[in-house]
Amino acid sequence: MNDVRGLQATWDNLGKQDPYWAVLSDPDRRHNRWDHDEFMATGHRHVQHVAGRLAELDLKFTGRVLDFGCGLGRLSNALAETGLDVVGVDIAPSMVEQARTMARFPERTEFVAYDGRALPFEDASFDGALSLIVLQHIPPLPKVASLLELVRVVRPGGLLVLQLPSHRKNPMPVPAGCRAAVEVVAAPASLTPGQQSAVRVQVTNLSEHHWHFSPFLQLGNHWLREGAVVIGDDGRAQLPLSGLAAGASATLVLEINAPVEPGRYELELDMVLEGVTWFQGVGSATTRIPVEITPHSVAAPVAEPVVVATEPSAEAEEAPVTEDAGGIEMFPLPPALFRSLLEHVGCRVLHLVEDELGGPEWGSYTAVVQRLY
């Protein structure tokens, strides 16, 4: 609830101070440097692009369509130009007031402010809904609530076209962000050959940078025998969707697979930025625990973990440095989770494709969804 109140205050203030940039955050257009006609033309291009995607599926918007997060009516006017009846809804009263004055088709457009909770519309009262570059700025819990509300107000058989960010392309600066403490909370002391098991691990971000959620930033493990790595890649566990702030900790569950040969091993735990480096490679410490691989599992307490300090490798020190981008806060939703959520509430995801709407720093996707019942 506090998230929603803060969100409304933020966007209402942006609507008063720099509304065009708040909608389309081009750094060169900040401080009210957007040209109105050029800004509105982007809505026409985006609606044409959406219409093309729908046409590829032999579909189109019809009847009454909801523009969720309408802002200044950029998309609403473009939708109305095609002959649709459009209702734009936004959390920022200041945006809605301006959208009403900018309406080019007042006979086919209506603009409504709401409190960010339940949409002020009856069930199944729209034939479709469109939301671009809006859901990406809503925190996780209100985002899920918004998706459920959008499904509620669209009739069975109706279409929803929704864009969301999937992950931060560069989740933190390298190597400065690659500093972690890895502490074992619970782990098996022995396993049978090839057995699958789980390790509970507390990961702490020791760097000065926020770790943004990314499918490429994960906890992983190696298996060592007599100090040598015998299995370099095994399990993976992702961070929470909110990422991990500097100095913060999170408990992750890592699924592991025991080596197939019996013997005494060490399970080494480390963070990894896939395709770039293991944190150990840039000087972050790892944690190792002894695990006995035996023909028959034996219950035993977990041995004391060993923290292994390392020096950065010459190769790793040359990893490219990336800086966090400024702008309005983004909150990702992985496509698999989005699909599962929508299917759980009676929808079918007809089409899901990557796009560039999240900006250069973010992976993004747009989905065409049909409500089934």
From TrEMBL:
Residues 66-162 form the Methyltransferase type domain. One of its GO terms (biological process) is methylation. Keywords: Methyltransferase, Transferase. The keyword Transferase applies. This is SAM-dependent methyltransferase. SUPFAM superfamilies: S-adenosyl-L-methionine-dependent methyltransferases (SSF53335). Pfam families: Methyltransf_11. Transmembrane segments: none annotated. One of its GO terms (molecular function) is S-adenosylmethionine-dependent methyltransferase activity. It comes from Crossiella cryophila.
